[in-house]
């Protein structure tokens, strides 16, 4: 048997091995070892076979050593990158070894087994149709119009203006959109053709001569060959293993047709595998100033892909459905999506008529919910072709609060009539950035929930690889913006873009943040409803100065004087105690309390279930109380009013609140009662997790 790594010299192999080991050992190295390994792969496409063997050996070690399980995630990511970017044919014997190694990983707990299964499916498809993973990834990310594989990915980066200064905004926008300004569609299609023919034909492909021939093709001929390769790949994927030989034959025919024009080329360089690194995706950066912005993006996304295409496929069912997407968005009452100004007087609104959902749409929502579970079964997923909108939010806890509000609104509308989920798949990503210079690092053990990056801290503890690659960006971006503002030069322009690409391609496992509903009753009996995801703070406005003074240690007589001033401030509490019985516990009047803070605890961290921690502020700090609950009702007595701030965002502040009720937000799509009976429910309904959660993609998710 021929050793696949025989062509790699010992010095190069040793260098690859050292870099791969550094990748595993330096989990807190901000991804520098990973970038170094990727660059070596991109610059020398002849090394993948040797590198694949190293990665498989490492995976085999992690199967038997529990202490090495954390290495599974980066190794699987790198293995996927190596296989998808390899510019030459990978031997069948090496594919077999990869398959066996991934099969062993299926015995590991989630999320390792879930990621191994996903990687195994992708690699199996690549074995049958060499080059298909690269082609589909590039076609989707670059929004190339094809008659075969037509699904598109669009990346929207939404930055919170409350965090982004003008210099920071300019440098981030310049770094993220650099790929769009230098994008050449013809070169991208040429790279796809080069990669597909090299991977499929192997040594029989004259790679250097092919590259020179493709360089001389006109736009029309390049488009023709590109469309032919895409159709051949799509047909092969549909046929499965039975279509492998037919696929290679068709690739050979396309290759011969292209090379028929190579007779005019007289000078040919040595024939070696050419690098075909994945190009950066098309990224759109904007400040998220209004709730309307995100709705406009979703409405324009499908239309922008096909409105200018003269060769749009008319028989595509997905495209026919997209024509109504913009109209669906325009029909939405955008007043519900605008931030609520708590001091505005209520306006008279038309009552919404109930629109009954048809059974097919109900079943679609159920399948969507089941498909979001970690380790779900493929047979339960609805086989539906949709474009993908990847929404990346940049900011602190406040931007995730705004995202949760949007996510709740879209689910509420989808429960009445499916508009978006039939046509678009929404994936959410989070890059933490804050403008608080004195904030500690998200990985710092002294991190407190009161800081502005508490959720970034949670993600970092749940997913160490997220902490190393994404949380670490905050300091780098801020320093880079400061250097550019003083020097006027760009420094490491692709640091953010390369990390974002890695995050988008490999961050496939969601951390599910539970949403909570708060129903607030004002003094005039008006009821206001909103949702929050991590933090709620409330106090009696007229006694806010007491909290500020109590935060500083002062003399005892001063505190006694303050206590007598607010003795009449009364808060009544009723909550469901966190216990197996779920019994309700009545609490008496909290006469010395003048405010409280509610924070969310995730099951991923507590190894139990999601719950809220409520901390009451008392006049005497020694009497401060803390409770754990999932449902709570709080009201003020003696005509006192509360001011409520959600997710630390002053833009989501409500005043003149007399009573509030807080409970887990139920997913509107999971309340699947029969049309004619309020008692009967669909069979799958009792098995669903009915609490609505905001899925933020990370590398491992909360599937532990």
Walk me through what this model shows.
With 704 residues, the protein is of the alpha+beta class. It has four domains: 10-128; 153-182 and 280-289 and 361-514 and 674-698, no CATH class; 185-264, no CATH class; 516-664, Probable inorganic polyphosphate/atp-NAD kinase, domain 2 (Tumour Suppressor Smad4, Sandwich), CATH 2.60.200.30. It contains 25 helices and 16 strands. Strands 8-11-12-13-15-14 form a six-stranded antiparallel β-barrel. A four-stranded parallel β-sheet has the order 2-1-3-4, sandwiched between helices. A two-stranded antiparallel sheet has the order 5-16. Helix 1 runs antiparallel to helix 2. The longest helix is centred in the N-terminal third of the chain and has 21 residues, at 219-239. The chain is elongated. It starts with 9 loop residues before the first helix and ends in a 6-residue tail after the last strand. Mean pLDDT is 75; it is low at 1-9, 304-325, 331-354, 372-383, 437-450, 553-566 and 673-680.
Short recap of the structure:
The protein has 704 residues and is of the alpha+beta class.
Characterize the main sheet: 6 strands, antiparallel, barrel
The helical percent reads 40-55%
Overall morphology: elongated
Residue-averaged pLDDT, rounded? 75
Strand share of the residues?
15-25%
Separation, N- and C-terminal Cα atoms: 41 Å
- How does the helix and strand content classify structurally? alpha+beta
Q: What would you report as the Rg, rounded to the nearest angstrom?
A: 28 Å
Largest sheet, spatial ordering of strands: 8-11-12-13-15-14
Total beta strand runs: 16
Low-confidence stretches: 1-9, 304-325, 331-354, 372-383, 437-450, 553-566, 673-680
